# Entry
Amino acid sequence: MKILFKLFFLAFSFIWFSNIAKAEVTYSCWNCMTLDSDGEGNPNNALKDFNAAAPNVKLVAVQYPYGDYIQTLPLSMRSGTSDDLMAFQVGSMLSTYAEYLEDLTPYAEKEWGANWKDKFLSVGIEQTTVNGKLVALPQVMSAAGALWYNQTIFDKFNLSVPTNWDEWISVSNTLKDNGVVGFMHGAKDSWINYDMFIGIANEVDPGKVYEAEAGNISWTHESLVKATSLWGEMFSNGIMQEGALGNAQYPDVHQAFTSGKAAMMTMGTWNNYSTFTNSGLNGSKESYGFTEDFKYGITGLPDMNGDGKHGRLFASPDVSIGMSASSSNKEEAWSALKVIIENLQSTYAKDLWVSSMTGVPFDLSDATSDFAKEALNYQLGMANNTYGKREFIYSEIKTALGDAMQNVAVGDMTALEAMEMVEKASQSVKR
Amino acid sequence: MNLNKSNVRDILYILPSFIFITIFFFYPIGYIFGISFFDWNGVSQNKSFVGLENYKNFFVDPIALKALKNQILWGIITIFSQMFLGLSMAILLRSKVRFKIVYKVIFFFPNIISIVVVAYIFNKIYDNNFGELNYFLEMIKLNILSHPWLGDPDTALYCLMVANIWQWSGFSFLLYHAGLTQINEDLYESARIDGANIFNIVRSIVIPLLKPTHIALLILGIIGTLKTFDIIYLTTRGGPARSTEFLSTYVFQAGIIEFKASYASTIALMIVLIALVLTTIQVKAYSRD
# Structure
């Protein structure tokens, strides 16, 4: 009996101490990038790779629906009960929470040396730095401003992918006359409207939109008024589908494009998995109820400034991860963060995410076809040559711009009036 | 105050409810009232006192005023439409008609469907390019009536009203149906003997005697209107161009998306104030009668 008791005590102690030795790091996110577990407690792909790369750290990732996440975050931050690591969107969200986040610069320098920034895409680190403080690290990047097209539809109607504004109008109207939606856009969603506006603005006069955001020029600058005017014209010249303001990018536009009902859309690299991988596309086929195999391609937005070149992509971190300044195990949290950011880039590359670190190509092993591989490589080339960012820092400007774009689209405002409204909001920003 | 045994006992009886109401009603109202005098993003540890600035901004904010106008229009049209349809159905089903139970189920069924499902269905129906409504109009050669229903600021709000009326008329029907069973049948008989037709009976007997039901539906309808959020958020999100924005959706947008907690609190207080004023007026009107 005594021997049994001693054995039991030894076994219990071993189990207890081994669990203590494995530090627990908590992580809350709306897009956990498969760092969480499925409904039955089985680790998803990235978590499996994490566990292999960091056997001494137990990562507990909890995924929230986005709406719930942005509601619970303020309370947990202010009460000091937030998780060790948290996911953020760059821009106004990250700026707002910056005061509660640990400065990661000393950790990065200790881990990767003084030149640690060289390991990352500069456009990512710039956007996770708030007032000189590195408050988060970019996990993966999203590059937007591309024109996705269905080559199968173009071949069917003997059309070429538009390379300039006039061709875009012509092709869209020809497709419409043949019963196919030409270019489909989810104008109900402000976020995709911002992408479209930045894409057009950067085509018309690169960089002016960022100068206006910084308050260095007025939003009524002629190039921004022109960009707004072009945006408005899209709703009457046949480029946009009718009723675009009633459609959401997901699922309406994504479904129509992927299932071959719409020939073109603007989208970004975050959508690669569901369209260009066998596993992702099979999921789309099952959800949307189609079986045909289409050839999807990617190029830049058509030339709008007459230089003969298509538009460039612009990028922001899709998810960036910060560490709570009130975390009680910062060293362990950093260990986990380092693995998530650095060691798992090849995991994210399998799902065709653009890496936040330099020199990480897509993993094309699950690409649907050679045509898809070509499209993805072309996209990656564009993503390595981005110009500017996707996310605005100031929520006042975002709101005003969102309203401005919708008012121009419905014809309630001229382009100049719309930009005057945005300029007024910009002047109210405390920079 | 003399605290005798009886008083103490009375206090103890109401204490749990009082604590509950204080924590979940008075405290939150007081809290948002307090922060409405500040400029605060809802996150930062710092906030700056701005006095009545948020209230001044509310009364000159074109979006807030548009949202209020949308909500008033919504309330008037949906409440009275639901009452009319509910009463009509209840009266029709009092007559000799076969398969009454089937009609009752069909009419009440939308009431039990989740709002998420309702929003999804109507999003699909109203889609301009692939929606069933435009497809049906094409089928019956009425293409000319095809329209971007939710994509046009002139029609979006009314389209959502249709969804709302479809979903909630069954509730009005239920209350009117119950109310009609309370009316003495002899009154109808007497009226018929005096030469009254169905319209006279409805106008002079049914409608006046159903006053308590009308009042109840009005109060519930106004509260429902002020609380309306989900159908808007799940379909148009307040667009296009704020044409379907409500104060309730604007609170969410301002407080959660735009990090303007103080201004959102101001809007929320305005909603509470409107609800209090309207409910007080109705209750007083009801009490007077």
Summary: DSSP finds 19 helices and twelve strands in chain A. Chain A touches chain B through 37 residues (CB under 8 Å). The radius of gyration of chain A is 24 Å.
